[in-house]
Amino acid sequence: MADLFDAVAIPAFTPVNLLTGFLGSGKTTLLSRLLKDPALGDAAVLINEFGEVGLDHHLVERLDDNMVLLQSGCLCCTVRGELADAIRDLHARRERGEIPPFRRIVVESTGLADPFPVLSTIKADPVLRHHFRPGNVITTVDAVNGLSQFDTYVESNRQAAIADRLVITKIDLAGEDACSDLIARLAVLNPDAPVVDACDGALDLAALVIEDDVPRAATLQSSSGFYCDAQQSLPAAGRAHSADFRSLFIIVDQPVDWTAFGLWMTMLLNRHGDKVIRVKGILNIEGEETPVAIHGVQHLVHTPVHMQAWPGDDRRSKIVFIVDGLDGNLLKRSFEAFAVARRAAEVA
Ligand SMILES: Nc1nc2c(ncn2[C@@H]2O[C@H](COP(=O)(O)OP(=O)(O)OP(=O)(O)O)[C@@H](O)[C@H]2O)c(=O)[nH]1
C-alpha cells in the first residue's frame, strides 16, 4: 500500500484548519462542499459534536480512515486531550503508511467551541508542534440567526473574532439586504477577515482553506456603513459557555410518520425556538428506503434532505436537540405524547 502513497510529498508542517461557527450555521454543509473540491481531496477530517451522539460524520456522507469522530463533549473543554490524541494517531498511521498520506487536517468544531484553546492545543503539544501548524480558521455565520446569536452567545463572537475567513451562510434565505447589519457587525468583530457568501456560485472553496489565497469571489460589504456597538458585540470574559446548554437524544425504533413528525417539530420550534438552539436528526420515514436528514436552528426549520444511503445497519431514527434553559423532560414528554397520539390514530 505504501507504494501508492510514496508520490505524495508530506509538508514539513501539516496545516490544521479549524472550521468553526455557531450551532447550525452551516459548518457540516460547507465541509461537505470543501471535501468535494479536488484541491482538498487529501485532507484528513476530525469532527467534534456537542451532545451524547454524533451525527455529522454521517451527514458528510464520506466515511474513510481519514475521517475521525471526536465525541462526547466540547472540543474547547472536555475533549481537548482527545483532539491531540487523534492528531497524533493520524500522524503515526500516516508515518507507517497505514492511511492515505493526508497533507492537511480540517477540524470541524462543535457549534459551541471556543476556538482559542483548540488552536493552542496544536501549538502547546510537545509532539504536534514539530509536525503540525495552525492553518486558516474558517468561521460560518448564519445570515438568519447570526446577529441575535452575537447578542446572546459569547461563543459566536469568539468564533467570528478569530476567523481568517468569514463565510456568511443562508443569504438565500435572509436576502442580501437583510445582511448589511450583520456584515457591519463582522467588520467590528474582525475587520481583517474577508467576508464571503457561501451561496455565491463563483466562490473558490479551496482558497478559503489554503493559506495566502484570498477567496476568489466578491467580498461582501455593508451597504449601511460600518456602525456597530463594539461594547455589546465583543466577547465577554468568564465562563467557558455563555448559557446552560444541554443536549438531548431521542431514538425511535419504529419508522416515523413524516406528516405527524413535521407538525410536531414545527409546533415545537414555533413555541420554543428561542430555547431549542439546534435540532438535527436522521429519520427512518415510513415508506422511504433511505433516511431523511432534518435540521432546525431556533425558529428556522430547514428543508429536509433525502440521504443517498443508510450510514450503517442501524435503521432507527435518531434526533439530537441542543437546548438552552428548556426542561428536557418536557421535550421528551411532548415527543412521547406525539408518538402516543399517532399510535391512537393508527388504532382508530
Ligand atoms: N438555505 C440554506 N441552508 C443552509 C445553508 N448552509 C447550511 N444550510 C442548512 O442549515 C442546516 C444546518 O447546517 P449544518 O451544516 O448542519 O450546520 P452546522 O453548523 O454543521 O450545525 P452543528 O454541527 O449542529 O453546529 C442544514 O439544513 C443545512 O442544509 C445555506 O447557505 N443556505
From TrEMBL:
Signal peptide positions on this chain: none
Keyword Ubl conjugation in annotation: no
Superkingdom of this protein's organism: Bacteria
Residue ranges occupied by any CobW C-terminal domain in the UniProt entry: 245-339
Catalysed reactions listed for this entry: GTP + H2O = GDP + phosphate + H(+)
GO molecular function: hydrolase activity; nucleotide binding
Stored Gene3D superfamilies: CobW-like, C-terminal domain, P-loop containing nucleotide triphosphate hydrolases
CDD domains in alphabetical order: CobW-like
UniProt entry keywords in alphabetical sequence: Chaperone, Hydrolase, Nucleotide-binding
Family: Belongs to the SIMIBI class G3E GTPase family. ZNG1 subfamily.
Function, in words: Zinc chaperone that directly transfers zinc cofactor to target proteins, thereby activating them. Zinc is transferred from the CXCC motif in the GTPase domain to the zinc binding site in target proteins in a process requiring GTP hydrolysis.
Protein name: GTP-binding protein
Organism expressing this protein natively: Phyllobacterium salinisoli
